[in-house]
Design brief:
single chain, 884 residues, alpha+beta, 6-stranded mixed barrel, 5-stranded mixed β-sheet, 27 helices, 22 strands, 50% helix, globular
Length: 884
């Protein structure tokens, strides 16, 4: 223990002496820890558990009771926020009453209704959340917090949240219109949600905001009972179709036999495999990044360690001293990173709430945070492991004599002394070291073959050992990365043999990199891992986008502008159509219809389930031959004639079933739907990849529905859709404006942050290795200057060193990323064959984002070479002599 404490003191002294290297190592270890702990803290804080949100949901009440659209028994999870299953049919709009609740639960009830509402201020519409609750009742204490003004006290008064007030410019005293009732109400206060400061919500008393009170949309109640609402009470209310959130159930002990949340984040075997693989990758990347920096420290301390060995220190003592560097620097950096990550995130949560959305009370997941901290320390220890072994193997006599120690010289010297050889000058002969380097990299080959074998096994599909096969892809990738890391030293040595044919700067740089291949391989492997991850992610994302575009069947022509009216009469529609013509001068507008039932409710139309198609048809256009020509993309007299005869025109023959088209019609606002079949014919679209249907109004009118013109189509790409929607929204009509964009999304934008991360990792490892190379090359650089080499040659040599290190890593990473990216693309893009074949996997799509890949592969080496050349001193320093 005394030797270990002494090693810690030596490491602390060395860390304070070499402040630049200490800061570099601590940044490389502390920054990843900071990022991961910040993300974990933010995720735990925004993940509001049912017990944490109990005040915002229940206030001081004992339970919240919510109606559903079912009159029979329902089942719910413990928190009661949604329904898991129901027995019996829907109630078709029947409203449960408070008397039915109090018959099963002895409690005082106050109405608690939630939903959404459309409001209009002076010049535009807003779709916002709505809460009907008397916030003056003591039972609601804590549900919303009064920030300004007062609470609503009558049916003509409302309060708004700060987010709605900021977004719409509302102030206390302003008047807004609830469009569902066309009722004007006055804003009397501003209230805040305890956690969700970004919610846009309006709060009022019952019957002020929400019009639709059918089952499933309200009503609901807060309940104040004389005793706790237990799980037995919850089940009784479930029996009449009620969902219950009970304070006693949430805060009490676990309920036996209760349903858990099906969306909870319990870790299964795939998640554990993924976490283990990610932990290995994080530790490996930290070790590879900080390895050159620890090698620099070993270079600085060679004489100190040699003196310790000369005074009787064993190889084990030298290992402990170097490993203590990793423990001290890694421990301090990891603790600082964890403290800054958690503390900084909690301090910034008020700002993050406004920018990113709701969150719960402050929460730090101590288990994962401590795990990430331990990974940081482990990464530093692994990074110091190779320098520790090198320190134990160095020859103290050579170090104290200030003689350059070639690779393997220390091993040869020790073996010579072990076998009684007096003169170890033969250590300079590289025969033994050369034989070591010439060995076949068996470990690298085994890891690569194992990783590729696991990849092939995972791509076969199925559930081996009860785990989805795709979950084995990340562990397979870890094996491939480790295999490439083990292979890079051999590649560095092989490339060193080709240096004779290169120009002088490259020749010296490559030879030095091959001479110190451990230092070179560490930095190159860090670049390789970062590049491989970026290329893998790019190919996976690009393949997914390409597959989606390949299988996507557009139902509208590209650049189609759709203007639809909501809840308007004929006069309002005429106003909206005139406003559209004024806002879009010179743009041809094609009218289309909307179906309504006998009660005047808008009807949603869906194509009935068809096993021969893999897409959905929602609200197909209803109109005449002009609308048909617009969607078909060309005039078709035969199709127009069929449409005039009352037959639907489909652009995909798979939609037809015995010459008919099956449609499911459902009225907005609830109620059962109806299935109708209308005669239909198939016609070819002007775009072979387009599908869709055009329905004649006569077919729907024959089925008992009415059709009114409520939609406009145009070929026009609006520069500002939101501005156009506000321009077309008026007191007599509300417009919904949408533009169909079929352009493929670019992955180049996503790659900017991936490129930045890869560049940061590449520069960190490369420049650390280049700094060590500058120290090793000092004699060679001095000789170059002494024989008349220009100052720029020094820059060129070190720039070539940095470019060579980053270039090897980038090229190897690109090759590994291509393989793993293709493997990742297979499960992301392959699809099941139609007709529900369980074993019929469709073809996979593999696409490469060439521009982004070139940026990730070529950018880091070029920038590393440029930075190394710029920061290198071009002139020779003053000569010095070391005195023993």
């Amino acid at each position: 223990m005394s030797a270990f404490l002494a090693a810690l003191r030596l490491s602390r002294r060395e860390a304070l002496r070499a402040k630049g290297r200490t800061a570099l190592v601590m940044a490389m270890i502390g920054l990843p820890v900071l990022v991961f702990t910040a993300l974990l803290t933010y995720d735990a804080t925004v993940d509001v558990a049912p017990g944490e949100d109990i005040t915002a949901e229940l206030g001081a009440a004992d339970a919240r009771i919510v109606t559903t659209a079912h009159g029979g028994r329902v089942s719910q999870p413990v928190h009661g926020r949604f329904m898991l299953a129901a027995e019996g049919p829907a109630t078709d709009g029947t409203v449960r009453t408070a008397d039915e609740v109090t018959a099963l639960l002895d409690a005082r009830l106050i109405p608690y209704d939630v939903g959404s509402v459309e409001i209009r201020d002076t010049d535009r519409y807003h779709e916002v959340s709505a809460l009907e609750l008397d916030l003056r009742d003591p039972m609601t204490q804590g549900v919303r917090l009064l920030a300004e003004g007062r609470l609503p006290a009558s049916a003509g008064e409302v309060a708004v949240t700060p987010a709605l007030a900021r977004g719409s410019g509302l102030r206390v005293g302003d008047t807004i219109t609830v469009t569902a009732r066309d009722r004007r109400v006055r804003v009397v206060g501003v209230v805040e949600h305890p956690h969700n400061v970004a919610i846009q919500e309006v709060v009022g008393l019952q019957h002020t905001l929400l019009l639709d009170k059918r089952g499933g949309h309200g009503p609901g109640w807060l309940a104040d009972s004389a005793r706790p609402v237990l799980w037995e009470d919850v089940q009784r209310l479930n029996g009449i179709g009620m969902l219950v959130t009970s304070r006693a159930v949430l805060t009490g002990p676990p309920v036996a036999g209760a349903y858990g949340d099906p969306f909870d984040r319990a870790l299964g075997a795939p998640a554990l495999m993924t976490l283990a693989a990610m932990a290995v990758l994080v530790v490996m990347e930290m070790a590879l990044l900080t390895g050159p920096a620890f090698a620099v420290g070993l270079r600085r301390r060679r004489r100190e360690l040699a003196l310790i060995a000369a005074q009787g220190g064993s190889a084990r003592h030298l290992k402990v001293i170097v490993l203590a560097d990793g423990l001290v620097l890694g421990g301090v950096a990891a603790l600082l990173g964890a403290a800054l990550g958690t503390g900084g995130t909690l301090a910034l949560m008020p700002l993050l709430k406004r920018l990113l959305g709701p969150s719960g009370p402050a929460d730090v997941p101590w288990g994962p945070v401590l795990g990430v901290t331990a990974l940081g320390v482990a990464g530093a220890l692994v990074a110091a492991l190779v320098p520790a072994v090198s320190a134990a193997r160095q020859d103290p006599a050579r170090v104290l004599a200030d003689r350059e120690e070639s690779a393997g010289a220390g091993v040869v010297a020790r073996r010579a002394r072990r076998f009684g050889v007096i003169n170890p000058r033969g250590a300079r002969r590289p025969a033994l070291a050369g034989s070591r380097r010439g060995r076949l990299p068996v470990l690298a080959v085994l890891l690569l073959v194992g990783g590729l074998a696991v990849t092939v096994y995972a791509l076969r599909g199925g559930r081996p050992y009860g785990v989805i096969a795709d979950a084995f892809l990340l562990p397979a990738g870890v094996l491939v990365v480790l295999g490439l890391v083990a292979l890079i030293p051999v590649m560095v040595t092989a490339l060193g043999g080709l240096a004779a044919r290169l120009p002088l700067p490259l020749r010296l740089a490559v030879r030095d990199a091959a001479r110190h291949r451990t230092r070179t391989a560490s930095a190159a492997a860090a670049v390789m891992a970062a590049t491989m991850g970026a290329v893998t992610l790019g190919i996976g994302v690009e393949s997914s986008i390409t597959a989606a575009l390949t299988t996507h069947r557009a139902q509208q022509p590209p650049d189609t502008l759709r203007i639809a009216a909501r809840q308007v009469d004929d006069r309002g529609w005429a106003d909206l159509r005139a406003a559209a013509a004024e806002a879009l001068p010179g743009v041809p507008l094609v009218p289309a219809g909307k179906a309504f039932d006998s009660e005047g409710r808008a009807v949603q139309i869906l194509a009935d389930e068809n096993p021969r198609i893999s897409y959905f048809l929602v609200d197909p256009p209803i109109g005449d031959a002009r609308l048909l020509a617009f969607f078909q993309g060309r005039p078709d007299p035969r199709a127009a004639e069929a449409l005039a005869d009352g037959k639907a025109v489909v652009f995909d023959p798979a939609l037809l079933q015995n010459g008919t088209l099956a449609l499911q019609l459902t009225a907005n606002g609830g109620g059962g739907g109806s299935l109708i079949r209308i005669p239909a014919v198939a016609a070819a679209s002007g775009d072979p990849g387009r599908t869709g249907v055009v329905i004649p109004p006569a077919a729907l009118e024959k089925a008992g529905y009415t059709v009114a013109e409520r939609v406009l189509y145009a070929t026009h790409r609006s520069a500002d859709v939101q501005r156009l929607q506000r321009q077309l929204s008026m007191p007599s009509a509300r417009a919904d404006v949408a533009v169909l964009d079929r352009e493929a999304p670019s992955t180049l934008g996503m790659f900017w942050w991936v490129f930045g991360l890869a560049l940061l990792l590449s520069l960190g490892g490369t420049l650390a290795a280049t700094g060590l190379a500058a120290a090793d090359l000092r004699r060679d650089l001095d000789i170059v200057s002494a024989v008349g080499g220009p100052p720029r040659t020094r820059r060129a040599i070190l720039a070539a060193q940095a470019g060579f290190i980053a270039g090897i890593g980038a090229l190897v990473g690109a090759a590994g990323g291509a393989v793993m990216g293709a493997a990742m693309a297979v499960p992301l893009t392959r699809e099941r064959q139609p007709l529900g074949a369980l074993d019929g996997l469709g073809p996979a799509v593999i696409a490469v984002p060439w521009a982004a890949t070139a940026l990730v592969v070529l950018g880091p080496p070029l920038l590393a070479a440029l930075v190394a050349g710029l920061v290198t001193r071009s002139r020779q320093g003053p000569p010095g002599r070391r005195f023993a």
